[in-house]
Every structure is written in C-alpha cells, then in structure tokens.
Amino acid sequence: MSLAQLNLPLFTQLLSKKSIAPVEQFPDDPCLLFHEPPEIEDRAKIRFMLGNQIRFQQASEDQVARLIKHWRARLAPEIDNAGDSQGMTELDNDYLRDLASDAPVIRMVNHLMERALDLSASDIHFEPEEKQLVVRCRVDGVMVNIERLPANVQAAVISRVKLMAKLDIGEKRLPQDGRIQYTMGDRALDMRVSTLPGVHGESVVLRILDRSDVHVDLDKLGMPLDVLTPFNRVIQQPHGMVLVTGPTGSGKTTTLYGTLEKINTGTQKTITIEDPVEYQLEGITQIHVNAKIGLTFAAGLRSIVRQDPDIIMVGEIRDSETAEIAIESALTGHLVFSTLHTNDAAGAVTRLQDMGIDTYLISSSLMAVMAQRLVRKVCVHCAEDQELTADEASLLGIKQSDCPTIRRGKGCERCANTGYRGRVGLYEFLEITDSVRHIISSAGDANQIRQQAIKEGMRTLRGDALEKLYQGITTPEEIVRVTRAT
After folding, report:
1. Which residues pair with 20 in a beta bridge?
2. What φ, ψ does residue 483 adopt, rounded to 5°?
3. Cα gap 180→192, rounded to integer Å
C-alpha cells in the first residue's frame, strides 16, 4: 500500500481525534499507535477500511503527539488535493493552529507588526502571490514593502494573524473581520483585521489604531489661520450641520475628533455613532454600528435624538435615510457633525441633492463644509533646498518666480530613505454664506457654489497645498498626487 492509496478521510479522522497515529514506516509497517485504547467498533472500522493486517500498539502520549505532527506535515499536499470533507477540515484546522502557535511563527508576525509600527504605519497588508507572501505597510498614505516571505510560510503567517484576531482559521472562502489588541511597550494598540480570499490565498489587512494617542489638538492639524478662525466660530453655534469631506484616509475622523474635543466642555450632551469607534473620548457617549443586528447609522441616529443630545456626530452619511434624519436633527436644535465622500467642499451639496434631499432643507441646515486631504511632509532631518524646475511649475500651474526654491528630502534613516516623515492636512473651508445659500436654494450646481465661495475668499485644496509648498512643508509630487488643478 502506498501513500497515494491511503484512505485520506480515515487518516484525517484518526489524526483529528489525537488518539491514534500511524508509525512513520506506515504502510510498509501497518501499525497504529494509541495512548488510550480505541473502542472495539473503531478498531473494526479501521481494519475494514485499511485492511485486516493493521496492528494496534500502545505508546506514550508524547510519542503519539509527535507522530500526529509528522503525518500532518507529510499529508498536507495530498489533503489539499483530495477534495473537501469534514475530517479533512478538522485536520487542516488543527494543523493550522499548531503552525500558528509555533514560536518562530509568533516571533515573525510580532517582528512584522513592530517593524510597521516603528515606521508609524497606518495599515499592514499581507498579500499572497504565486511564489511569495508580500508584506507591505502604508506609511504616510503610501505603500512601502517591508518583507517578502517564501510561499511555504504563508499558511502559518496568515493563520497566526487570524488566530490573534479570533477569526475562523478554517474559513478561507469568505471575507472575515476581527480585531487584535496588541501592546508594544507602553503603547496600547487596536488593530482592525480584514481578510479577503484571493487567487493565491487570503489577503489580510490590519488597520492600526493607537489608543495611547487619543487626544487630537484641532489647532495643530495644519489648518491655516484663515480656515481655523471661521471653523472655530462655526462649531460653536448651537445648532446646524457641519460636514467634513474627502476620500478614505484623508483624516476626516481625526478632524471630527479634534472638533469634539474642542467643544466638549462638559456642559452639553454629546453622542456619536461610528463604524467603528476608533478612539474612546472621555465624557462622550459613543455607539458602534452593527448592521448584523439592525443597528445602522439611520437606526442609531433615530434613537440618538431621543436621548436629549446637544451635539451629534454621525461617522458617515451613506444613504438618504441617514441624511434626512441628520438634517432634521440639525433643524430641530442639534449641532450635527458628519462626513461625506466628495472631491471638494462644494460637491457635498450635490451629493446631498443626489440622495434626494430638498434644496431648501440643505440651505436651511448646512452651516459649513470642510474638504480635506493629507500630504506627506518633507523630512526635516534630510531636507535640502532645490530649484523648482520649469516642468514642475507648469504642472502646478504657477510661475517659477513664484517659488524659485523648494525643500525636498534626500532620504535618511529617520524617514526610511523616502525623504518624507509625517503628514499634514490640506483644507478647503466652504462657509454657507447668504449668497451661497441663495445658489443652493436656486438649485445651482457645485461649480456655481465653488466659484462664489472662491470670490468670497475661499482657499481651495490646491491653493492650500501651494502655500505649504512655498513654506517648504511638502513637494510638487505630493501636491499633484493628492489635489487637482483648480
């Protein structure tokens, strides 16, 4: 009898029970070792399926455990190709748990996490390819390679991460979401874990949330004074709606947390509904969205208004129902903050109109819109002066004489040779003045709103970016990467 002729489902059942293990020379030596004697019916079944020549012999628990590990490793390729069965799934899960619990695998995953944290990464990506497992992280909004691992450690590494996140390590066909609480020195970290099945295996992404860095100072986010001053004035109003817009990862939640910290004096009731709650804020009631049980943004918001709040923060307006309740809340004496995904500040009005919100409701409730982006800052440790080239000036739509020299990092150990370290916000603040409100009520489009706001002194995202270029904070490449020409 050869390995190819073995009854793999039966072998799987034997190993998964952890009570019977074939000797290493099996099937040349058809002997099965056990620590606790199997039932007579089990012996008969095994002999019926593997042959009457099978012998049973008692052995120590350690010897049986060693043989189980031996056969798991030896049969892994055959099991992968043998089709699905409950027994095989049990073996696979057991084997993966053992792999994920091995000290070298634990050290490897911890090392990758700590390396990403040392780079101040916001995300860690485990990306399986045909012949390797690529580990990348997002540093200051840009993907950076940190490791390329051989394909044969992929199962162990992915299983280790899933085990830490309390996910089903045997489920490889469906996406899963989990969370890891990780401590590095005196830093308490939360990691949101997302898995996604791919052609070469599961892709896993970890979103890093640093609970030790909760407090956000609104005055230190990089808002220019001509934005910060009117924004501070608007958020002190007793009611109305303020929106923060931008793509994913543009710092919208940070701005909202900073805003709540600024106005949280303890004399008002503040409630948030978020997906998920990224940081816990003192003195504020925070609700975590859970769509599985029907706790959506709309459902949560409907309940929040019955809790007698003064200030409400909705993590994101995703549908017309949420938008309607948020606007109704703003019109009935609440100060409402939320986010939208739009390209610029004026686009928020169009987005609400697309959701079916009447223009008169928008013009009556909306006080301001802040559009924002994040650009990388030039590393102060390796920055040097360079001339702005004619091509760069043309790309930015400015004259060389406007900015004859710029600052650019040449790369050093502190910035991982990127020339950048840290990020700063770009801001476009649209205050809903009477003239802008008139355009909204008249069903004017986003371009009309934008042009009127610029006429009244609004600085665009590109304009704020150029100002930070003149100050030596960022580079032409970053400006072109994250903003569009005005």
Report:
1. 34
2. -130, 160
3. 7
